[in-house]
Write a structure and sequence with these properties.
The protein is of the alpha/beta class. Helix content is 35%, strand content 20%. The protein is built from 15 helices and 18 strands. The protein has a 6-stranded antiparallel beta barrel, surrounded by 4 helices. A 5-stranded parallel beta sheet has the order 2-1-3-4-5. α9 crosses α10 (281-301).
C-alpha cells in the first residue's frame, strides 16, 4: 500500500435548479472597497430582484465580512478560495459597481464550467462601468465565453429581457451591426502614408518603456511580446524603484523651473497646507521631478513611449503621476535638459505616455503620434476611462474621464487647466490633476486589444461637444470633479452598441482640426494598422 500523502478530493455541492451564484471582484485598496460597498449592495439587490421575478435564486458565493464591512473579493488568493466552493457548472454572475482588480477572479473564471454573466450599474458615481469593461476585456483576451449587460436601475425592459435570455440560454444577444471589418482601402495619399509608416516601424523598430506591468490587475493591459514584436514594437521592462531613484537625483531648482513654466503658461493650482487632504507645493515638486526623471530615463534607453504603473507601487511613496503624464503627452510642455545640461530632450515634441502602463494604449499612442505628426497635425493623444453617459437633448453624450493625464491642448491650453488634489480614497499621497473640460471638436477614437489570440483594433469617429456650464458641473460632481472630462458624441454608435463591443476600460482620443481631416487621419491610421497585421474594425459612421 502506498504511503504517499495524497491530497483529499475536494467536493463541491451540486448546483440547485434555477440558481445562480454571485461574486464581486473588488479593489486592492481597502478604503475603496469600504467606501464603494453601499453602491455595490444596491446593485446586487437590483440584479437579484430581477432574477427572483423569473423564479431564480441568487446565492452570494461569499458572505459580507463582518470585519471589513464589505463582500468584495479583495485578493487573488481570496478569489481562489471563493471559487473552490462554487459548483463548477453553476451559472455565475460577476456584479461590478466599482473599480475592480480583474486578476482577483480570473483564475476562477478561466476554469469555471458554467455560463458567466458580467453585469454593472450604468452610473457615474463609482467606476463600475470601467471595472466591467476591464473584466470583459480580460475574459476576451483569455478566450473565455461570457455574457454581459448593464442597467441604470434594473427596471427597464431591455435589461429584463437580457436576463431572461441568459437564464434560458446562457447568452445575451447584443446589436453589433455597427461593426464592420476594414475593407480594402482605395488608393490615396492617406493609405500610402499609413503603409509607409508601418514599413518604417517594421524596419526601424520602436521601444516602449514599461515601469512595471499589470497596473491595478489589468490583465487586458498586458500585451505579450510575441504579439507586439511583430509590429516592430519591443518592451524595455523598467522598475518603478528606478524611477523613484532618478526622482531623488533631480534638484529642487530643476523642479521649480517646471512649475514656473506652467505658471507662466497660465495654469493655476488649488493649493493648501494639509498634505493629507489638500494639494501642497511639496506634492507638486515631486510631480515635477517625476516628469524630469521619466524623460531622462527614456533618453537613457532610447525609448519611444513610456508608461508608469503608479498604482500600487508608487502610491505610498510619492504623489500621483498624472500631472507628469499630461505634460509628457503635450507638444507644448516644459523643457527638460539631459543630466549634463547639453541637450533638451525631445524638444518640440510630445513624448507619448500610456497611462496605467496599458500596453494597448502604448501601441495606439505610438502609432497615432507617428501618423498625426506625418500629416502636420498636433499629435497630443490620451486615454480616457469609459466612465458613464446620459442623454442630453437629442444625443447620447458620454462622460470620458481620466485621473488627470490629459494633454493641455485638449483643454484649449495650459491657461484652461487647473490643478486639483487627487482624492484621498485612491491617492493617499495626493498630487495635482490637470483638471478642465475638453474643447469641442472632431476626434478619432480607438482601442487596440487582444481577441482570438491576435491584435485587434476598433477605430471610430466622434465629436467632443460643449454642454452648458451647469450640465458640465452636474456631470463632474456625479463622477470625479477633480478630473478632466470630455463630453463625447459617437458617430453612428449607440450606448449599448458601444458597451457590447468595447473590449477595454480605456478608449484612446486624439483631435483633428475638422471632420474632413479627422476622416483622412483615420484612414492613414487604419492603413498603418492593417499593414502591421492588426485586425482592424470600423465602428459606426466612418467615411472610407
Amino acid at each position: 500500500m502506498s504511503t504517499y500523502a495524497l491530497p483529499a478530493r475536494r467536493e463541491t455541492p451540486a448546483t440547485p435548479p434555477r440558481t445562480a451564484y454571485l461574486i464581486a471582484s473588488g479593489d486592492l485598496r481597502e478604503r475603496a472597497n469600504v467606501a464603494g460597498w453601499p453602491t455595490q449592495a444596491a446593485l446586487e439587490a437590483g440584479v437579484t430582484r430581477v432574477f427572483e421575478e423569473f423564479g431564480w435564486t441568487v446565492i452570494r458565493a461569499n458572505p459580507v465580512d463582518p470585519e471589513t464591512g464589505h463582500g468584495f473579493i479583495s485578493s487573488q488568493r481570496m478569489g481562489m478560495r471563493v471559487f473552490a466552493d462554487i459548483p463548477a457548472d453553476a451559472p455565475l454572475i460577476v456584479a461590478e459597481a466599482v473599480w475592480q482588480y480583474s486578476h482577483h477572479v480570473l483564475a476562477g473564471l478561466r476554469t469555471h464550467g458554467g455560463p458567466i454573466l458580467t453585469v454593472a450599474n450604468f452610473a457615474g458615481d463609482w467606476p463600475g462601468l470601467v471595472g466591467l469593461l476591464g473584466l470583459n476585456a480580460g475574459l476576451t483576451k483569455m478566450g473565455r465565453e461570457y455574457a454581459t449587460i448593464w442597467s441604470v436601475d434594473f427596471t427597464d425592459d431591455w435589461f429584463r429581457d437580457g436576463i431572461r435570455e441568459w437564464t434560458e440560454t446562457g447568452r445575451i444577444t447584443h446589436d453589433t451591426s455597427h461593426v464592420r471589418p476594414l475593407p480594402a482601402l482605395p488608393e490615396s495619399d492617406e493609405k500610402a502614408l499609413g503603409t509607409a509608416l508601418a514599413e518604417q516601424l517594421l524596419t526601424e523598430k520602436a521601444i516602449i518603456g514599461v515601469f512595471d506591468e499589470g497596473c491595478m490587475g489589468m490583465y487586458n493591459a498586458i500585451f505579450d511580446d510575441e504579439l507586439i514584436n511583430g509590429l516592430g514594437v519591443y518592451k524595455e521592462r523598467l522598475s518603478q524603484s528606478a524611477l523613484y531613484a532618478e526622482m531623488l537625483r533631480v534638484s529642487d531648482e530643476e523642479a521649480a523651473e517646471v512649475g514656473a513654466w506652467l505658471t507662466d503658461r497660465g495654469m493655476t493650482f488649488r493649493l493648501g497646507t494639509d498634505d493629507a487632504t489638500e494639494l501642497t507645493s511639496g506634492q507638486l515638486q515631486w510631480q515635477y521631478k517625476m516628469y524630469i526623471a521619466a524623460l531622462r530615463i527614456a533618453d537613457d534607453f532610447g525609448l519611444d513611449a513610456v508608461g508608469i504603473q503608479y498604482q500600487q507601487g508608487l502610491k505610498d511613496l510619492v504623489p500621483a503621476s498624472d500631472l507628469a503624464e499630461g505634460m509628457l503627452n503635450s507638444t507644448d510642455r516644459p523643457p527638460v535638459r539631459s543630466r549634463d545640461g547639453a541637450r533638451i530632450l525631445h524638444e518640440g515634441r510630445a513624448f507619448p505616455h500610456f497611462n496605467e502602463a496599458d500596453e494597448g494604449v502604448a501601441v495606439d499612442a505610438l502609432i497615432t503620434d507617428r501618423v498625426w505628426r506625418a500629416m502636420g497635425l498636433v499629435p497630443d493623444n490620451t486615454l480616457h476611462d469609459v466612465r458613464w453617459g446620459e442623454q442630453f437633448g437629442d444625443e447620447f453624450v458620454w462622460v470620458y474621464e481620466i485621473s488627470g493625464s490629459v494633454p493641455a491642448s485638449h483643454l484649449g491650453g495650459w491657461d484652461k487647466a487647473e490643478g486639483w488634489r487627487q482624492g484621498t480614497v485612491f491617492f493617499p499621497a495626493g498630487g495635482s490633476t490637470i483638471n478642465g473640460v475638453s474643447k469641442p471638436g472632431a476626434v478619432v477614437l480607438s482601442r487596440i486589444y487582444i481577441a482570438d489570440g491576435v491584435l485587434n483594433a476598433d477605430v471610430f469617429r466622434g465629436t467632443v461637444v460643449e454642454l452648458p456650464a451647469e450640465e458640465t458641473e452636474r456631470r463632474k460632481q456625479g463622477t470625479n470633479p477633480e478630473w478632466p472630462i470630455a463630453h463625447v458624441v459617437l458617430h453612428g454608435v449607440s450606448r449599448d452598441q458601444f458597451m457590447a463591443q468595447h473590449k477595454a476600460n480605456h478608449v484612446q482620443l486624439v483631435y483633428a482640426p475638422d471632420d474632413a481631416t479627422a476622416d483622412k487621419a483615420l484612414i492613414a491610421k487604419a492603413a498603418m494598422l492593417d499593414r502591421l497585421g492588426v485586425r482592424v474594425h470600423l465602428l459606426g459612421d466612418v467615411a472610407i
